[in-house]
Amino acid sequence: MSTGRPWSSYYLVAGTSFWSVMALGGGYGLASAPDGAALHFDTAWLSGTPFRDYLGPGLILAGSGVAGLASSALVVRALRAARDGRAVPARDRYLVTGVAAVHAGWIAGELVLLWDVVAGLPAEQRRFFHGFWWVFTPLTALNLAAALAPATRRTLGRRGGSSRVSH
Could you tell me what percent of the chain has a pLDDT over 90? Predict the structure, then answer.
């Protein structure tokens, strides 16, 4: 049985990798200067959040970046295994979907916790956050949709056998 080209899996690798590299950079910027100085953030912006400084958010964001890159590697491994007719551990599908859900949770958390704060910022800072959210909210939604797509699930849920993905 041929599953065709799993475009959702290819997209997932690209989208998650981009999200993750950006998360590593942002996480480093936050964690390396918990007072927010590296990114020109003010700790007062965190007043309605569970955090007092940017160390925690930086470590969480960087961790989600590392997890995202590992997730992308799992999808690449699954694509190669599908091409060669080899088995893929079923747990990979759950890990990849879990990482996409964590990324979605990060963006949702930012929107919920920072929306009012950002609304009160000067126009230049507000544009930065709104631009960021306009890019990363749909990217995150598409990554999650790609992780849940039937073609990706088939690629990541293969147990071996003779079915191959045609290229």
Answer: 77
